[in-house]
Write a structure and sequence with these properties.
By secondary structure, this protein is mainly α. It has 24 helices and four strands. Among the domains are: about 150 residues, no CATH class; about 40 residues. Strands 1-2 form a two-stranded antiparallel sheet. Helix 5 packs parallel to helix 10 and helix 8 runs antiparallel to helix 10. The protein is globular and about 95 Å long.
Length: about 625
């Protein structure tokens, strides 16, 4: 068992540090070494997943002098790993996704926005992610969690002012939430007297407990990218390389952030109905706000960034329901999102690599030139939109079922179940509308002359995309028969589905409808049909004229009811980073006016401040 833990945590860390010494011109060798490490991590994760649940110390106690024995004993208490059902499941997901990202990266291009020492930070992120999900003590958890914030910062290539600003914003937001988590962990120690996760079960009936939950939940929301702590994701996905986006905001950060939220809601705290109500509001607001912003985007990397935020709302809704069905649905959607969202960012990276742009208006008609990327993108787009029989539909349908079941309970949050359900379904419909733009704008329509000579990405780029697409199909087709029962029920507990749902039957119905559709088309094409020129207001059609699909979405921006909302969003009213930045600058300006250079004024502020401190001490 110790050897497997070393492979999971210390092997990626050690190889990642050693790769700092290897020059970047040997990037293929570095990429191959990183890929080999991910395969070993996958092997170890599979072995551990099949093992029994156990708590083991990361550092063994050393017998010797009194000081050495006591020191190692104390250190052992804070460096314990807990291999329970939830941590092993998340670890397996991390280990499955890492080799696919690593394989895609081996023959990467020399790109200006690619981060330096990518493979080192890639492996360090993998090792610390494993440590995070296995940590039993909250201090050990916080250590690995904090390192991940720095690796996230380093995975943005800081080659210009804009990307450097995005990296700084990411570090500040993540670092600020980590600081709040430290306070929350201190409150837990004050309440429970222990930081071991398996020993915690705190009822949120008092102010300190509620405050501790909120502070720790902010850390989970920020890492996962929930509203209003989401804005770092938008800057990250827009300025970072698509490979970095596929690895962190799309996959690993979602898995780790939602994992921690699941711990908070189901194991560390016992939530009262008002906290459940607050979580549901955050969940549905994240869904609707982000998807509405995604609809008007022209940059497909930023569009995917907003959807990386929107999907977090579904996970929060599922986990906040508190039932075995809801928790399983939230965790299932967490993994599904990591798969199709990671795949979408890989397709975006492939398109940007071949075209040199991330503007939807400047692409179009690439399906014939990049057919494999197109097929993968269609599968991912349909999956994130909740179209059966793909995995995105399966987890969203479970969330809908969980909300209906939640409505049978008492409490204000349960009484409003129809609102949560309506907003979740509405968000899924808007997601479909958004990805019609993504697929149509990039791959369909008229092909521009400048793209006549482009070709499909290489073998090592399209294989990971196709494998992720196969996972989307397989996890959707066999959701009820195998996936949910074997992977998620051991974590959430057994439950019964609401209504009738058989994923395999749904698969065959969809396949049958496609076959019938092709037959109807084939029979219809056998008849002689008259062909005429298209009629466009009496004018002759210009075959070279293109009609950018983004133009159809301008109506939303100019809508009577949405124009104000979009205008405020462009002014960054909903960007918590810019709001606090403005407040800090305003405060600094106020203090600057106080520094007049007059000695009597300084004396007044000194004695006035001293008087206020004395009054506070007396009271």
């Amino acid at each position: 068992m110790t050897d497997l833990l070393n492979i999971l945590i210390f092997l990626p860390l050690a190889v990642g540090i050693l790769l700092f010494l290897v020059p970047d011109k040997l990037r293929i060798w570095k990429g191959s070494a990183a890929f080999a490490v991910t395969l070993l991590v996958l092997f170890a994760a599979i072995r551990i997943y099949g093992a029994e649940e156990v708590i083991v110390p990361l550092i063994q106690q050393v017998q010797g002098s009194a000081f050495l024995t006591q020191f190692t004993h104390t250190l052992q208490e804070f460096t314990v790993l807990n291999m329970n059902a939830l941590s092993k499941l998340i670890l397996l997901f991390l280990a499955v996704l890492a080799p696919l990202i690593g394989l895609y990266s081996i023959y990467r291009e020399k790109n200006a926005d690619f981060p330096a020492h990518f493979y080192s930070w890639f492996l360090i992120t993998l090792g610390c992610s494993a440590g995070t999900v296995l940590a039993e003590n909250l201090l050990l958890f916080l250590f690995f969690w904090g390192v991940l914030g720095y690796t996230l910062y380093k995975l943005i290539a800081q080659n210009d002012e804009a990307s450097s600003a995005s990296a700084k914003k990411t570090l500040i937001i993540i670092g600020s939430s980590d600081a709040l988590m430290i306070i929350g962990i201190g409150l837990i120690w004050n309440i429970a007297g222990t930081l071991n996760i398996s020993e915690l079960s705190i009822a949120t009936t008092g102010g300190p407990a509620v405050m501790a939950f909120l502070l720790l939940a902010i850390g989970a929301f920020t890492k996962a990218g929930a509203f209003p702590f989401h804005t770092w994701i938008l800057n990250f996905t827009e300025k970072a390389h698509g490979l970095s986006s596929a690895y962190m905001p799309a996959s690993f950060d979602k898995l780790i952030g939602i994992y921690f939220l699941a711990l908070l809601c189901s194991r560390i705290f016992e939530l009262n109905q008002w906290l459940v109500f607050a979580l549901l509001i955050i969940g549905v607001c994240t869904i609707i706000f982000a998807v509405m912003m995604a609809l008007i985007q022209h940059n497909f990397k930023k569009l995917l960034g907003y959807h990386a935020v929107s999907q977090v709302g579904y996970m929060i809704v599922g986990i906040s329901l508190g039932s075995p069905l809801g928790i399983a649905a939230g965790l299932f959607h967490m993994f599904n999102n990591a798969v199709y969202k990671g795949g979408l960012f890989l397709t975006a990276a492939s398109v940007e690599r071949r075209t040199g742009t991330s503007d939807i208006d400047k692409t179009g008609g690439l399906a014939s030139k990049m057919p494999l990327t197109f097929i993968a993108a269609v599968v991912f787009a349909l999956s994130i939109s909740g179209i059966p029989p793909l995995n995105g539909f399966a987890s969203k349908w479970m969330i809908y079922q969980g909300i209906v079941d939640f409505g049978q309970q008492s409490g204000i949050a349960s009484q409003l179940w129809i609102i949560w359900l309506a907003l979740a379904v509405f968000g899924s419909a808007l997601t479909l509308a958004s990805f019609i733009k993504y697929v149509s704008g990039i791959f369909l329509g008229r092909k521009k002359e400048i793209y006549e000579k482009i070709k499909e990405v290489g073998l090592l780029q399209w294989i990971p995309m196709m494998l992720l697409a196969v996972i989307c199909i397989w996890f959707g087709a066999f959701a009820t028969e195998y996936v949910i029962k074997e992977l998620f029920m051991p974590v959430s507990g057994t439950f019964a589905f609401v209504g009738i749902w058989d994923s395999s039957l749904l698969l065959w119905l969809v396949v049958a409808s496609i076959v019938v559709g092709f037959l109807i088309y084939w029979i219809g094409s056998l008849k002689n049909m008259r062909k005429v020129e298209p009629f466009i207001g009496g004018e002759k059609a210009d075959e070279t004229q293109g009609y950018p699909i983004t133009g159809f979405y301008h109506t939303l921006r100019k809508s009577r009811y949405l124009a104000f909302f979009y205008a405020r969003a462009e002014e960054k009213w909903f960007d918590i980073y810019d709001l606090f930045k403005g407040f800090v600058l305003w405060t600094n300006k106020g203090f600057s006016t106080i520094h007049t250079g007059v000695l009597t004024t300084y004396a007044f502020w000194i004695y006035g401040g001293l008087a206020i401190i004395l009054l506070l001490l007396i009271l």
